[in-house]
Design goal:
The chain is α+β, with helices and mostly antiparallel strands and about 575 residues long. The chain has 20 helices and 13 strands. A hairpin with a 2-residue loop joins strand 5 and strand 6. The longest helix has 25 residues. The chain is globular and about 75 Å long.
């Protein structure tokens, strides 16, 4: 059934976004590149069309297929709002307009590994190991269980769903398409229907009686490495046994026996014979040479000297504490020195060095956060650095009030200083404000900001399930509460922007939920008073001007809303 497409130059969400181009359209969804007209940044916009009435389809089968696809797309969006990792596109806003659900997310530049493979052929061993380790890092995050997230069974790992700009150190892979992913509540999950891609899906995923677990993703990962090394698009090979017969060593001359052994273990038919988790796979890839024949030959020669070295080793063990102690003393000295330098310079780079020397020491994080605020932006590089340092220790520190302060300030970084569309930061802040609450730090303020982020995360599912009644007034009340709690030019500016955006995007729903015209007009007046009494810095003048213009437009929107149904 032909669905109408948006055209280049079309405006959506009250003119906030402009369509730049159609990226692709398939089934129930259209994906566009859009421009935020006030911030001048590009985003990816996915439009999910609601299914038409059953009578408009050629058959019940076509209607059921449309409903199933719609549910899958909504489910994917719901899953992505719960994820927070630099390698996964972040959803920044969700809204409904004209019978469609619109989802704004990061625009990922680059090409899929499948497209790159078709263009250039097989990847080198070095490239495959690099890519393999990068994929492992993302999968370790997806499979992890934390107090905030259950393990995610991805279920569709293949070159088509992995993107990268170029094969270079520092270029992180991006994982896309969570349409059939599923959070696991138990160690094993019985699969009710056959899902996955032929050539990459594990055997147990095609057995309706089989129990699947996260090791099914490890099988798919092994198949991805085979595809990259050999250049074969495995999904085009009809019989799985034909893939098992592929001789990787012949198809990829010079490939390490150690790497082949790792791939073979990933692709074992019996899940019990695979690696237990992706951390074990990552370790194996870092040490693949230890399986090589040449390595074993060297090891054999070394055995001859072990006896003699053993005697010396016994003597050295008693002395080994000396260099360890000296190293600890030196590290402490460097840490104190770096803190002193950072306090004087107030540079982000100097605080990052202090954090790197002792990631478990929390005081340096507060200095780093204050330094980040200086330019008013929490950059992607700064975000990645913070996450890499904090994520490994965050789960063990929840409940520590000092950590609660760090978590609260990180949450504010996301909420108020995250560049591009602010909703992305609000959604990402939820975890940190929850941690602050759990640690007993500024519980009321943290709860208010966390509730606003939760609204942004859950609204897409609620709209799809028609269970959004009452959510808008709670969102509105939390915005008003946050305005009273938080101070600072940038912070107050953004909260006033949020008030106006809520009226523009959810005005009708706020009215239905019981927010009166008087309340709305009062808040518009408060926003205009804030603008009038402010002396904005040069870097923020444009945002103040835009806010003033939108406040005037919001007053008209509210007048029109209540003109239809009488004033209340």
């Amino acid at each position: 059934m032909k669905r109408k497409l948006l055209n280049k130059g079309d405006l959506i969400l009250n003119g906030k976004y402009e369509i730049v181009k159609l990226i692709h359209n398939k089934g129930m969804s259209n994906v566009y590149l859009v421009m935020n007209r006030s911030l001048n940044v590009t985003r990816c916009l996915k439009e999910i069309k609601r299914p038409n009435a059953e009578s408009e389809y050629r058959s019940k089968k076509d209607y059921r297929k449309a409903v199933q696809e719609y549910d899958s797309l909504i489910s994917e969006s719901s899953i992505m709002t719960k994820l927070n990792h630099p390698a996964i596109p972040r959803i920044s806003d969700i809204f409904e307009e004209g019978g469609s659900v619109f989802i704004l997310m990061d625009y990922i530049e680059g090409v899929s590994l499948r497209a790159m493979q078709e263009k250039r052929g097989p990847f080198s061993q070095k490239e495959v190991i690099y890519l393999g380790k990068e994929i492992c890092k993302v999968m370790m995050y997806l499979h992890s269980k934390t107090p905030k997230k259950d393990p995610l069974f991805y279920r569709d790992l293949k070159p088509d769903n992995i993107m990268i700009q170029s094969i270079q150190d520092g270029n992180q892979v991006k994982i896309l398409d969570f349409g059939i992913s599923k959070f696991l509540k138990t160690d094993h999950e019985k699969i009710e229907q056959k899902l996955g891609t032929r050539g990459f899906a594990a055997p147990e995923m095609y057995d309706s009686e089989a129990l699947c677990d996260l090791r099914s993703d490890i099988f798919s990962f092994g198949r991805v490495l085979i595809s990259l090394l050999t250049g074969f698009p495995l999904s085009d090979i009809k019989k799985d046994e034909d893939i098992r017969k592929l001789d990787i060593a012949k198809l990829s001359p010079g490939v390490s026996r150690g790497l082949v052994a790792i791939i073979d273990k990933c692709c074992e038919v019996n899940p019990k014979n695979r690696y237990d988790d992706f951390s074990a796979v990552f370790y194996a890839l870092n040490n693949y040479e230890k399986e090589d024949i040449e390595y074993l030959k060297k090891a054999k020669r070394k055995i001859k000297t072990v006896f003699a070295l053993g005697i010396i080793g016994i003597m050295l063990v008693g002395m080994s504490f000396i260099p360890r102690y000296m190293s600890m003393v030196e590290n402490n000295r460097l840490y104190k020195e770096s803190i002193s330098v950072a306090q004087k310079s107030e540079r982000v780079e100097d605080w990052e060095r202090a954090v790197s020397l002792k990631p478990e020491q929390l005081d340096a994080y507060l200095g780093l956060i204050e330094a980040i605020k200086t330019d008013g932006k929490f950059s992607k590089d700064e975000e990645e650095f913070l996450l890499n340092k904090l994520s490994p220790i965050s789960t063990t520190l929840v409940g520590n009030k000092d950590y609660g302060k760090i978590a609260y300030e990180v949450g504010k970084l996301y909420w108020f200083y995250y560049p591009e569309d602010k909703s992305a930061g609000e959604v990402a802040s939820v975890k940190w404000f929850k941690d602050a609450e759990a640690s007993g730090y500024k519980v009321e303020q943290a709860n208010t900001l966390h509730n606003i982020g939760e609204f942004k995360k859950k609204i897409v599912t609620a709209i799809a399930e028609s269970s959004d009644d009452g959510m808008y007034i709670k969102f509105w009340n939390n915005l008003l509460k946050a305005k009273k709690n938080e101070t600072g030019e940038l912070v107050e500016l953004q909260l006033n922007e949020e008030i106006i955006n809520a009226l523009e995007g959810y005005g009708h729903r706020l009215k239905v939920d019981g927010v009166s015209k008087k309340e709305m007009i009062t808040e518009i007046g408060n926003v205009q008073s804030f603008i009038k009494n402010s002396n904005p810095s040069e870097s923020l003048k444009k945002r103040y001007e835009e806010l003033n213009k939108k406040a005037d437009e919001s007053r008209k929107i509210v007048d029109e809303l209540f003109a239809k149904g009488g004033e209340k």
